[in-house]
C-alpha cells in the first residue's frame, strides 16, 4: 500500500504553542510554507476553514501559483454556499492549478462556530445535508446535460456547468467519528480521516467504517490519521521538547481559549474521544502522547507522536499496518517542523513502505 503525506499551511505563522507573528494574510509566509512542504516531499497540504479566517479556496489559488507539484486539500463547509456554486468554484480552481485540488468536507462539529456563518442545523441534519450536497457536486462535475434537483435541503432547475475538474472529478476527504459520519462518508468519500488515537481505537473505527460501507453496498474508502509529530535527535531531547511545547500551550492565549471553549461540552465526537484517551493516560502505544490534546481542549488534530525520527516513523508504520494509507502531519512549529519532517521522517516512512511492498509475498 503506498503512503501519502499531507501537511497544513496557513496565511500566518502561528500555532497553539506560539503567538501569531506578522499580518493575518502574510503573502510571503504563505508562499514560503507552501514551497517548504513541496520541497519536503509532501503530497498535499490542507488549508483549514474558519468563519473568521481567509477563504481557503483563495489561499489555495495563491499558493498553487507559487508551487509546481503540491496538491491542495481545501476545507469546505456545506451550507456556506450553494452546491452548484461550489462545483464551479472548485472545478475552476482545479483547472487553474493543473489538477492539484482535493476537497475536505467539513460537516461541522461546533454549533456556535456554525452559527457564525448562519448555519443553525443540528449535527445529524448537517450530515444529511452533506450527503445531499456531495451528490450534487458529483453530478455537477460529471453531467453533460442540464439537470434539476429537488431535495430536502436544495432545489434548482436546469443546471449545467461548462467547467469540469481536470481529471473529471475531485477526490473528497471526509471526517467524523460518529455513526452519522460513517454512514455519510462511505457513500461519498474517497478518504475517511481520523484524529490521532491509540492503535486499538483506530482499528475499531476502521472496522466501523468498513461495516458501514458493507451495509451500504459500496467499497470502503481509504483511511487517513492526523498527528503532531515532535522530533528530537534522541528520545530524551524529543521529550524535553515535547514538555516545552506543552508548557507553551498551557500558558498561551490560544491554548487557554481552546481549552475553555468547550470545557463542559466538547464540540464533537472526535474531541470527546481524544479527551477520553487523554484522561485515561498521557502515553499510549509506541509514541502517542495525548497531553497536548488535553491542553488544547482537543480542538482539531492535537495528539503528538514523540521521539526520534526512527521511533516516530515506526509509530506511523504501526498505523499503516492497520490499513492507514494517508498521514496528515503538522508541527507545533509549523514551518521548521515541515522542513524537519521532509529531511528525516517522510523519506524514512516512504522507504520502509516501499521495502515492505517489494518483499511482500502473495498469500
From TrEMBL:
Question: Which keywords appear in this protein's UniProt record, sorted alphabetically?
Answer: Flavoprotein, FMN, Monooxygenase, Oxidoreductase
Q: Does the keyword GTP-binding apply?
A: no
Q: Which GO terms describe its molecular function?
A: monooxygenase activity; oxidoreductase activity, acting on paired donors, with incorporation or reduction of molecular oxygen
Domain of life of the organism encoding this protein: Bacteria
For the keyword Oxidoreductase, the answer is yes
Listed Pfam families = Bac_luciferase
Occurrences of domain Luciferase-like (ranges): 21-325
Protein name stated in the entry: Alkanesulfonate monooxygenase
